[in-house]
Design brief:
Largest sheet: none
Number of helices: 9
Radius of gyration: 51 Å
Order of helices and strands: HHHHHHHHH
Strand content: under 5%
């Protein structure tokens, strides 16, 4: 092969070629990069002899070995490479039939409040359903304990009127007031209805109303008794 000036390059002796090959291999290991014509002592503008190029590159590749920066593979450790297993698609959760979902919902409702609801009950407090029912022996007092003053006054008026004219309806109203107070406290503890704090100052107002109601009842009863005795005995 001829260079650009038309002069054939002289072939190097064999021992010189071997020395250049060793030097190129050592330089390749230290630098960590490939060899080119300039590293082998040739002008980049001139072509290297085919035999020298093949011998130099083969020696360099043998001395350098595998790339130290490349990741280790099974072949580097002497094991045969295993084919990669295909990734399994993610399984979508199966939806329960409607009748199963309905039964689970009923079971959850029967089991009571969830952990989040229990925590919220502990944070907001606890109402004793038994205490609410006992307080309602005086009609409406359990409703004040549950935070409903309007309903308490309604039960009080209904019970007083019932006791004035008919004893049995008045007792039934008191019994229903006890049941309503118990159920309301129970549902508040389960977070089925909004939580209500006891009415502040409601007990004082309520007891004042009770005193007035009792006084009115006694006055009404006294007047009724005098009216009846006047009719019967002509006094």
């Amino acid at each position: 092969m001829r260079g650009k000036d038309g002069v054939e390059p002289e072939e190097l002796p064999g021992e010189v070629v071997g020395d250049l090959a060793e030097e190129a291999a050592d330089r390749g290991l230290e630098s960590g990069k490939g060899m080119d014509e300039k590293d082998l002592g040739y002008d980049e503008r001139e072509e290297m002899p085919p035999g020298v190029m093949a011998e130099e590159l083969a020696g360099e590749a043998a001395d350098r070995g595998p790339d130290p920066e490349a990741p280790m593979t099974a072949a580097d450790l002497g094991y045969p490479e295993m084919p990669e297993e295909p990734e399994e698609p993610e399984r979508q959760p199966e939806q329960a039939p409607p009748e199963v979902a309905a039964s689970l919902a009923e079971e959850a409702a029967d089991r009571g409040p969830s952990a989040e609801n229990v925590m919220s009950c502990e944070e907001q407090g606890y109402k004793s359903p038994v205490k609410a029912a006992v307080l309602s022996i005086i009609p409406g007092l359990g409703q004040i304990y549950n935070g409903d003053l309007a309903q308490a006054l309604l039960f009080l008026v209904a019970a007083v009127v019932g006791l004035m004219y008919y004893i049995i309806p008045g007792l039934l109203i008191i019994a229903y007031a006890m049941y309503d107070a118990y159920r309301t406290s129970y549902r508040m503890n389960r977070n089925e209805i909004p939580w209500q704090n006891p009415v502040q100052g409601g007990y004082v107002v309520y007891f004042a109303l009770i005193i007035l109601a009792v006084a009115g009842y006694l006055w009404f009863a006294g007047e009724s008794w005098r009216f009846l005795t006047g009719l019967l005995f002509g006094q």
